[in-house]
Amino acid sequence: MSVYLVAAYAVFWALTSIFILSLWARQRRIERDIEALKQHLERGSPKNA
Amino acid sequence: MSTSNVPDSTQDFDFLGLLLAGTSGILIIVALGMAFLYAPRELTMGDVQRIFYFHVASAWVGFFGFFITFLAGIAYLIGGRRSWDILGLSSVEVGLQFITMTVVTGMLWAKPVWGTYWSWEPRLTISAVQLLIYVAYSMLRASITSPERQARFSAVYGIVAFVTVPLSWFAIRWWRTIHPDILTGGEAMAITPRMVQTLVASIAAFTVLYGTLLRQRMRLERASDALTRLRLKMERRSLLSS
Fold first, then answer.
1. What is the ipTM of this complex?
2. What is the CA radius of gyration of chain A?
3. Which of A5, A9, A37 is opposite residue B231, by nearest beta carbon?
4. Considering the domain boundaries, does residue B5 fall inside one?
């Protein structure tokens, strides 16, 4: 089997995996920030004061 | 101050997203199986021709992604809704991923067939320019601070940049070029029914994969909006208490 054929399909898997991982990492970071801010706001809310 | 009005969509169980991801996974495996086991070996190029199935499918999805951005740009300019901006931005990012794949797989096909990775012929030149134009979209967008101006600029840019799609499509029909015209090339470029079926399966698989990635990218942007709203709320509260 041609090395170029293997490389082309490897490129597909590599680029797709990198993109999915980058989406997942960004989503995780945002969710963490949202959670931290929510907790901060709730701690400082009048009913908790 | 309550945070109950902050959307929690980022943590909801996304059944549709999971269904789309599973379907695209299965379709990609089917398309791979067809490309390697079902489609016949091409007589002139041999096995390296099998690159063609994912190369054409990724080009189609890339063009489709830019078309969605074009439509979202028009819709934003008419209605001014943030959701159109999110759709346009997300579609560019996913489209870029597929166009990059097209260019790289094309280069890997060209080396054994043409004897060189790259040739400055019309189709390849337009593809390179197109890639740069859409990379610039993301960079320029990020450089604008006002959200409204950012969305308006992106809408107009997405509409104008779309001209590269028909240009790329017609490049191999209008100008003398060494790039093969498989789809409308006539008998000289005839492909067998099994090859056509494999190509159709690959295009279907890539289109569903595009939908899956687009949906996730849009969810990310909405989550980012929710975070911005929370930050604004924090800032307002700090100002009130000071």
1. 0.85
2. 21
3. A37
4. no
